[in-house]
Design brief:
Strand content: 25-35%
Number of strands: 39
CATH superfamily of the largest domain: Bira Bifunctional Protein, Domain 2
Oligomer: single chain
Strand order of the largest sheet: 27-30-31-35-34-33-32
CATH architecture of the largest domain: 2-Layer Sandwich
Number of domains: 6
Distance between the termini: 88 Å
Number of helices: 20
CATH topology of the largest domain: BirA Bifunctional Protein, domain 2
Radius of gyration: 41 Å
CATH class of the largest domain: Alpha Beta
């Protein structure tokens, strides 16, 4: 944001040096990126002269030989000149021998095409005061001959290029910075005084604008329109042009310049319509239709959609609201009647449209960061004043004010003791009150408190929407009191003997494990798009995990899984020809359960087909490989996955391939794990080649205990195990784990605790000839062991017989012979 010092002095008396002002701006919390000085540099030996004689050069058609009187600076000089825009009697800048012009151009006496020239008559560009090089700078007001040119030219300006922090949109204006400097230098702030206060008189011109309608009040809470007739388009006054030029804007005409001037003064964008060009004499603030077109002021045709806000007449959109006008919507040289729009558009709508169209402007920049709707009318009245003063005309009715924001009222209660406690040193109460007053933070009530000093109730002005907590007022007091006045003190920081947070320990353990197994650690965005959440999770998650005010459309939802981010990374690497097949990430995920969003610590990984050309390839990933890794990750969170029931995942929830993946646990238990093959069609739809296996483990932070239980030594048997095999014929869809658990239950009951059932594991599955249709055979190995003896066949056979007798009761299973 470029701020003109000359402009600032309209609102605040500044006697400080430029360096002092830069220092003040910095200590107020902004960064001065650059200081630019405009106007003519110091020009020695350049004076005012008058052309007495202008004769044609004898040896050149386009040159003239002039006699120029420079008065007491040297009398009459002969100067050869090629410009054509001057006449005898004009007074012009004359650079004499020895003068050094911008660009280190030294003037000396020389012959030009055989004719001696004692110097040079100068253009504005040659003096460094403007870009006009078409002819000599003709001096108005007939200054005295021989006067140094620096005494004649307008004084230059100092421009501060300031980086405004996003939380301070009120300072995207000269009044905003002036308000800050007035508080710092403890001087009065002078506001512009509007003469026009909304009175349109008796004249009514509904033929120019008969109605204003707002169809999208949620994005345009306030819209105002004033009609001014009988205006005359022309150049804006010199002082306005100089100020706009100083801050980097090109003067166009009085109407356009006034709109830009008030925007830079108040921070309120506005737009002037040629009333004759409004079809149907109507203004409608509405959403565009899908595919609707508009040609903007930059000459480009843009296609709109139904989420974009436009200002339209009865037949077409004429402005992209808050961003840029249409090519034929603004004023032209023959405009005589105008409609002045000043409105308040919501920042979310303007930001989305600006990003989608790739179109930004000074207007959208301010709307995106937030303007003060409570000063919109004040800015409109200021613009009307300037139009009447510099373009003539008359304000007529009807005027329109559609909508209006909620009346502003915000108060914060803060005590002297609270501010001193947070600052770490004491500031007198009088200095704190002075800081509030300087910043126009009105103290509406003062009450004594016990042990905390005075309690102030501070009324927050509408332009300071960033102030909403007592701690915010602590910062305001310190800014004005001065951070350089913080007393020097020894910093004391007591040591804290504490363990790392359990989440940190968990993250460290799982990261070490995965990196140790050749996984590449990734860090992806914590926000995902609604389209992705709907495709990979559910519509319920779309509703529950949506942000209230997302910055961009593709980061609108909290992430429910880490897997989708890892797939993005995998796709990127594949598209770049990078042979990476193992990726992992640790972070937070948000899992929706019964209308509640649970924030969980999570770890996930993906294993893709190894596309690298190698002499020897590693074994491809499969279900059991990912199960092994997830089991280890769950163990790092204190969960023994081997003791948990695994269930097959059905449907495409979270993008799993049905029949090739499993799940354990649920958020009702405080944790969940899923692993297996990702849905082939969905992975291919992302543009990823080959199969991708994945695993994810998520757990509530309160379920993590930090350190894992240490394993203790326990005796083991030195005697051999007794092994038995058992094959069962079961339904084709019966899971092996179901049989294993039932066998374990019956075997432990059969041994009666006399010896241990050490292991029950499946080792064979058979389907086909010799078995009924819809059936399969599952064979299990059972291992028994006693701690104090070698088991006899009779003992083991008796236990096995009980198991065989009971396993078939009520289950429909049979022993395979």
């Amino acid at each position: 944001m470029k701020i003109s010092l000359n402009w600032l002095k309209d609102y605040v008396r500044l006697d400080a040096s430029v360096d002092e002002i830069c220092r003040a701006i910095t200590f107020l919390g902004f960064e001065v990126e650059q200081v630019i000085r405009t106007g003519a540099p110091e020009l020695n030996h350049v004076v005012v002269g008058e052309v007495l004689v202008r004769d044609k050069h004898p040896n050149a058609d386009k040159l003239s030989v002039c006699q120029v009187d420079i008065g007491p600076a040297g009398g009459v000089k002969t100067i050869v000149c090629g410009a054509q825009n001057y006449q005898v009697g004009d007074r012009v800048p004359v650079a004499l021998a020895g003068a050094v012009l911008p660009g280190n151009f030294t003037i000396k006496q020389s012959k030009i095409r055989g004719q001696l020239s004692d110097g040079m008559m100068c253009s504005a560009k040659e003096l460094g005061v403007a870009e006009d090089a078409s002819g000599l700078l003709i001096l108005t007001g007939r200054p005295a001959l021989g006067t140094p040119i620096n005494d004649v030219l307008p004084a230059g300006d100092t421009v501060f290029d300031i980086e405004i922090t996003p939380n301070r949109p009120d300072c995207l204006s000269h009044l905003g910075i002036a308000r800050e400097l007035a508080a710092w230098f403890k001087t009065e702030l002078i506001y512009p005084q509007e003469k026009f206060r909304g009175d349109t008189g008796a004249t009514q011109r509904p033929d120019l604008l008969k109605s204003v309608r707002v169809d999208a009040p949620e994005d345009c809470p306030l819209y105002t329109a004033h009609i001014i007739t009988g205006i005359e388009i022309g150049p804006s006054p010199d002082w306005m042009q100089q100020r706009l030029t100083a801050v980097g804007l090109r003067p166009i005409n009085n109407l356009v310049d006034i709109g830009n001037y008030v925007m830079l003064e108040y921070g309120q964008p506005m737009h002037a319509f040629d009333a004759r060009k409004l079809g149907g004499n109507e203004i409608i603030v509405r959403r565009a239709a899908d595919g609707e077109k508009i040609v903007t002021l930059d000459g480009k045709e843009r296609s709109l959609n139904s989420r974009m806000l436009v200002i339209a007449d009865a037949t077409k959109p004429v402005v992209i609201a808050g961003i840029m006008g249409g090519e034929n919507s603004g004023v032209t040289d023959d405009t005589t009647d105008l409609v002045l729009e000043v409105a308040y558009f919501k920042r979310k709508s303007i930001r989305w449209t600006s990003r989608r169209l790739g179109l930004s402007s000074d207007s959208s920049y301010r709307y995106e960061r937030g303007i003060d709707p409570h000063t919109a009318l004040e800015a409109a009245y200021r613009a009307v004043d300037l139009i009447l003063e510099h373009a003539g005309g008359q304000v007529v009715g009807p005027s329109y004010i559609v909508g209006g924001d909620v009346p502003w009222q915000r108060e914060i209660v803060v005590t002297h003791g609270f501010i001193c406690e947070k600052l770490g040193f004491t500031i007198p109460e009088a200095d704190m009150e002075a800081a509030f007053e300087a910043l126009e933070l009105a103290v509406t009530r003062k009450e004594p408190t016990e042990g905390r000093g005075t309690a102030w109730t501070v009324s927050i002005p509408s332009w300071r929407d960033d102030l909403d907590r007592p701690i915010d007022l602590v910062e305001e007091v310190l800014r004005i009191y001065g951070t350089e006045r913080i007393p020097a003190a020894v910093v004391t920081a007591p040591g804290l003997a504490a363990e790392d947070d359990p989440v940190v320990l968990f993250n460290r353990r799982v990261t070490d494990y995965l990196v140790g197994h050749d996984f590449h650690e990734c860090a992806t965005y914590t926000l995902r798009s609604s389209r992705e959440v709907a495709a990979w999770v559910s519509q319920t998650a779309v509703a529950e995990l949506a942000l209230a005010n997302p910055f961009v459309d593709d980061q609108s939802h909290l992430r429910p899984t880490l897997v989708t981010g890892l797939l993005d990374v995998l796709k990127l690497n594949q598209s770049r020809g990078v042979a990476v097949s193992r990726l992992c990430e640790v972070g937070r995920v948000f899992i929706e359960r019964n209308g509640q969003n649970l924030e969980c610590a999570a770890v996930a990984f993906v294993m893709a087909d190894d596309a690298d050309r190698k002499w020897q390839r590693r074994e491809p990933a499969d279900f059991y490989a990912v199960k092994h890794h997830v089991t280890a990750l769950a163990a790092a969170g204190g969960i023994d996955l081997n003791r948990q029931a695994l269930v097959p995942v059905t449907g495409s929830y979270l993008g799993w391939q049905e029949g090739h993946c499993a799940a354990a646990g649920e958020m009702g238990q405080g944790w969940t794990a899923r692993f297996g093959l990702l849905n082939l069609a969905m992975v291919k739809g992302l543009g990823i080649e080959g199969k991708v296996y994945a695993g994810i483990f998520a757990i509530l932070p309160e379920k993590l205990t930090g350190g894992l239980a240490r394993r203790k030594y326990s005796d083991f048997s030195l005697f051999p195990a007794a092994l038995r095999d058992l094959a069962l014929v079961v339904d084709q869809d019966t899971a092996a784990e179901t049989l294993r658990r039932k066998l374990a239950e019956l075997a432990r009951a059969a041994t009666g605790g006399k010896f241990a059932v050490e292991q029950i594991a499946p080792f064979d599955v058979y389907q086909g000839e010799g078995l009924p249709a819809g059936k399969k055979s599952l064979a299990f190995s059972l291992a028994f062991r006693a701690p104090d003896r070698t088991l006899t066949d009779d003992e083991v056979n008796a236990a096995m017989q009980q198991v065989q007798d009971k396993i078939v009761v009520g289950t429909g299973w049979t022993i395979r012979k």
